[in-house]
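Continuing the series of single-chain predictions for the mutant panel. This is the parent chain; the variants come on the following pages.
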Amino acid sequence: MTIDRSRIQIKLPDKVKLIIDTLNDAGFEAYAVGGCVRDSILGRIPKDWDITTSAKPLEVKKLFRRTIDTGIQHGTVTVMYGSEGYEITTYRIDCEYEDMRHPKEVIFTDRLVEDLKRRDFTINAMAYSDKTGLVDEFDGLSCIEKKEIKAVGKAYDRLTEDALRILRAIRFSAELDYTMDEELRNAIRELSGNLSKISAERICTELVKLLKSDHPEKIKEAYELGITKVILPEFDVCMNTPQNTPHHVYNVGDHTIHTLCEVDKFKSEFDDRENRILKLAMLFHDFGKPEMRTTENGVDHFKRHPEVSEKMAAEIMRRLKLDNDTIDNVKALIKWHDYRPALTYPRVRRLMVGVGVDRMEMFLKVRVADILSQSEYMREEKLNYLKELEDKYRKIVSDGDCLLIKDLKVTGKDLIELGFTPGKVLGDSLKALLDDVIDTPKHNDREYLVDKAKRMLSNL
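Parent structure:
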């Protein structure tokens, strides 16, 4: 990829241009900076537009009607236009870092190059304005051309300042499909242990971004550089667990990586939330295998590994401070990922109840990704089975079969009027009626259910 520097012209959003022009007209320098410049050069649509300026925070506040003191002690003010916010940060020099994440203090400067010098990677250390054009003091453009992640200045210094940059390097590598230069890789190997001092929330954000990228297989590089040993040691155990069975050709860790890539092929079918759930489910789905591995006559077995994987996944996700919705959905997919019911309609309906009807589309993709990441032994039979299961699932949905208590033609109130007492007996009775209907959908008839409920009541 060769870029003609002289022809680089970034179309700034109107409000970004207005902010920069306002600062310029007041006698200050101002530029779009960082990821928005990088993404614009790459032809991507930036998610955020950050602006850097020679104006001090109070000077910025005087120029704009609505501002928020986002991090004014570090030079950042957010300018508001309606519901949209644009962060403006004064050129600054970061002093000594106290927690491998934040500088103890910052010194404001009037030199753009000093501000760019403190940034993490060369591709993120470029600035742009219509007036000046591209400012690329650290040759970030060459790194874009070479598809390379390289630290600004000495890699060891940048990673020592902020340990989260270790994970950011891998994440950018995965999002952009870039390689990390050798100096950066060596610094990561040496300093990866410092990630233990970074908050779980920050670790989780970067890990999820890596998994959701177009190249989730880069997690193997995180393993090779010692990153997962610190943030996800369970993955390292999987990388060292063989699968000596005709059904597999990879160890547990490599199989996991392949499933991440296979499920990624379906990302266009799901929204961002569902893609996060799918990627995490694939990452954790076999974490219980090392613990459950047994060997008989040279063949490995992993009986009951889904329930152990589910438990481990829940513990890890809580450790990473993931939200309850994500945890619940990932747990359900892991719990059922290896379940193969008989292909009868009652059994498929029960599977749908267990997995959750709203999770079935994700469940099917989990199963496909898992199968395609195994050996070719019985692959055709497995895929044919899955296709028949999917056909039955879709017919059940099309027919509108009752799968939930709320869809029964009788309610708890109806049973109370028949003489049932509110409490456990009432709940168990509704479940018994649902079991009947799941086996025989035509039984979801009010007259039939009332009659059956009366008989159940008489036997209490």
